[in-house]
Amino acid sequence: MTDLNQPLLCPYCHLLITPEDNFCRHCGRSLKPGYGFFHSHTGIILMACLLGPLVLPWVWTSHRISRLAKIIYSVVLVLLGIYVAWSFYRAYQLAREMFDQVLNGLTLPIDIPTDIQI
């Protein structure tokens, strides 16, 4: 049986910690999965700005966020992903229409005289 007050080593900085610690006192890293910065509200919001719906695994593995907050984050991120995908598709359609108009404008029939002597 292990003593709860027996010192352990941090897996990141290899300095002494106690089993009750959630964070290393030296390097500040989380010692328990699901409790780090990327599992906090701030971390998830920052990652969502960069990755959108790809953040959902961090949302659902977090132990710091309530179930209701996880559901709200999921709905917002999925809707945001759908909106961004639709916006990119619409931008592609508009760019293609503009490209087609430019090409059609350049290929108008032009009367080239054939009787010009050089």
Structure description:
48% of the residues lie in helices and 3% in strands. With 118 residues, the chain is mainly alpha-helical. The protein has a domain at 33-106. A two-stranded antiparallel ribbon has the order 1-2.
Radius of gyration computed on alpha carbons: 29 Å
Major sheet size, sense and barrel closure: 2 strands, antiparallel
Low-confidence stretches: none
* Total DSSP E strands: 2
Strand order of the largest sheet: 1-2
Q: What's the gist of this structure?
A:
With 118 residues, this protein is mainly alpha-helical. Helix content is 48%, strand content 3%. The chain has a domain at 33-106.
Question: Main attributes?
Answer:
mainly alpha; 3% strand; elongated; single chain; 3 helices; 118 residues; 2 strands
Layout of strands and helices, then pairs:
Layout: E1 8-9, E2 16-17, H1 41-51, H2 56-61, H3 67-106
Antiparallel strand pairs: 1-2
